[in-house]
Amino acid sequence: MRLTDLTIGVAERFDVVIDFSGAEGKSFVLNNDAKAPFPDGDDIIPANVMLFKVTKRLSGRDDSSLPRSLAPVPLIDPRTSVKTRDLVLSELDSRKFENPIIALINAPWADPVTETPRAGSVEIWRIINTTGDAHPIHIHLVQFQILDRQPFDPEQFPGRLVFTGPRVTPPANERPAFKDTIKSMPGEVARVIASFDLPSGTPVRRGDKFRYVFHCHILEHEDNDMMRPYDVVG
Known about the structure:
Elements: E1 27-31, E2 48-53, E3 83-94, E4 99-105, E5 122-129, E6 135-139, E7 145-151, E8 181-184, E9 188-195, E10 209-216, H1 219-222, E11 227-233
Parallel strand pairs: 3-5
Antiparallel strand pairs: 1-2, 3-4, 5-9, 6-8, 6-10, 7-9, 10-11
């Protein structure tokens, strides 16, 4: 798909191809216009991300081309999921500094582990963002797939999870695709599905626990407890 802009969260990765043919001697700036905190903040940091200078001439004819289609990505069937878990994102703001001083995913980091998927099992995790900011949520170990996003009313949560619109399928640059980081938008429930496979060759005995983490990839958030451990259990 052809794009002129792309919304990328911290630590997200996208493969892009840029065609500089016919642009010899020109320079191009990759700009950032996303407000921080995203999406309704007051700052844009940094505004200029990268400078491209098209200066080196080709030594021969450029015969490169883009394929008509990419390698297919098999979708994980939600019917194979054995459990659905909720990850609730919350913030306690400082009125003086207008910054989150405590940011949580369900509970503080030091609390006992509550997410314990079985090795090799498929689970759906619902990321419920009750905050006013977007959070790039990174789950270690797995490559997950985004199922959908759905708006809800944070004012009625945690008493009730009241959806205010239909489930929305991700854009083509996010599904079908394997990811390890997702942009969790404010007032939205994002569902991801993953198979919790341990690295190939890992000896696993029944009852063994393998510790991993999931967290927001904004540094001041993860350093203020928006990070939790989880155990893959044999």
